[in-house]
Every structure is written in C-alpha cells, then in structure tokens.
Amino acid sequence: MAYLQIQDGEYIKTCGGFLVAENFVLTAAHCSGDEITVKLGAHNVSKQERRQQEIQVCHQILHPHYDKETTNNDIMLLQLAETVKLNKWVKTILLPRTNKGVKPGTKCSVAGWGSTSRQSKSAPATTLREVNVKVLAEDVCVKNPEIAYRDYDASTMMCVGDPKKDKAAYRGDSGGPLVCGERAQGIVSWGSRKRASPGVYTRVSTFIPWIEATMKKLER
C-alpha cells in the first residue's frame, strides 16, 4: 500500500497506490500532479515511523487514452527515483491475468487514508483504514438512473460496493487497490455522493498489456 502526497500547483492532495514492482507504483490517472512523493510501509502517515520508506517519483505515465471528462482509462504508472527495499512491511502485490474478470458477488477489500465521513469538511484519516466490499453486477452501474453513471464503461471499469451497507472508498482513497484474493483487481476511481451508491473502479485486467509494455520500456 502506497501513500501519495501530490503537489499540484499551489495545492497538496493525497491519493493511494500500490507497489507492482520494486520501482513502480500503480495508481489512478486523476492523481497526477507537478510532483509526487510516495510513502511505503506506512500505517500512521502523520508520524515518522521507522518502517516507512519515502521516495520521489521520477516519471508519471498516464494512460494515453485517459479522459478527464468521463474518467475513462483512469490509470497511471509511477516510476520511482530509487528501488524500494522489500521487507515484511513493503511488498509488491500480484496483478490479474489479462482480461480475467471477477465474478459478481466476489468479496474484496479496499484500503486507504481517505475521509471516513461524507461530510464535506471531513479530514482524511491519518491511519490506514480498510473496508470489505463486493463486486456487483455490471447492470447496477450501467442502468443506474443517477447522471454520474452515464459514462460507466464495463470494459474498463468495475462496479463495486454493497447497497445494504454505507461503506466504501471515499475522498482521498483514489488510486488505492481493490484486492480480491491476493490480486489487485481494481483501482479506486470515482463514485456518487449519495449514500450506498456503487463505487467505480478501474478494471486492472484490461490494462495488463499496457502496464507490462510501459514498465519494460522504462527499464531499458
């Protein structure tokens, strides 16, 4: 799990991400900025924990077809300026096989340092939080009457949540992994402010060829 501190003009924003190789972090494209610092091995990001590794990002590679308006192809690779030291606190996570989907009803988890309340002034969490969610049928998002879901694309996005429970990723959790089994199947992308509305995640399995080709190209 990676914590991203992003300098974007005069503002500082935060996102999540996850380590996919010793010098690459995967996150959401909308988490880009002028400068990004990655913290790995963190639990409480307000403290200088001994296990933390803080590394600058040297390259931000947004997906070439990322669309700001529709948030489609919301995926970005970050190349780190230094190689990470892998240990019991900092590990890489497995990615899915190309186009290998996740069945509706599959239980997964999402983690991050985002806000824990829907109130607009709610501050981000300082300690890492995790919540269990489940993969929903595509129609829950495709046929959702809310205007926000008109741009939902089932080939590049996943519909995730639990209509019976008002628990989900929220502001500040963007870019974090949706972990199903031991693989990062999704990336926190966007959602609705309405209670119990499904969250939308980038479908990682669609982008495996792009991820592999981009990492290979940068490591030359």
From TrEMBL:
<dbReference type="InterPro" id="IPR018114">
    <property type="entry name" value="TRYPSIN_HIS"/>
</dbReference>
<dbReference type="GO" id="GO:0004252">
    <property type="term" value="F:serine-type endopeptidase activity"/>
</dbReference>
<feature type="domain" description="Peptidase S1">
    <location>
        <begin position="1"/>
        <end position="216"/>
    </location>
</feature>
<dbReference type="InterPro" id="IPR009003">
    <property type="entry name" value="Peptidase_S1_PA"/>
</dbReference>
<dbReference type="InterPro" id="IPR001314">
    <property type="entry name" value="Peptidase_S1A"/>
</dbReference>
<keyword id="KW-0720">Serine protease</keyword>
<protein>
    <submittedName>
        <fullName>Mast cell proteinase-1</fullName>
    </submittedName>
</protein>
<keyword id="KW-1015">Disulfide bond</keyword>
<keyword id="KW-0378">Hydrolase</keyword>
<dbReference type="Pfam" id="PF00089">
    <property type="entry name" value="Trypsin"/>
</dbReference>
<dbReference type="InterPro" id="IPR001254">
    <property type="entry name" value="Trypsin_dom"/>
</dbReference>
<keyword id="KW-0645">Protease</keyword>
<keyword id="KW-0732">Signal</keyword>
<dbReference type="GO" id="GO:0006508">
    <property type="term" value="P:proteolysis"/>
</dbReference>
<dbReference type="InterPro" id="IPR033116">
    <property type="entry name" value="TRYPSIN_SER"/>
</dbReference>
<dbReference type="InterPro" id="IPR043504">
    <property type="entry name" value="Peptidase_S1_PA_chymotrypsin"/>
</dbReference>
<keyword id="KW-0865">Zymogen</keyword>
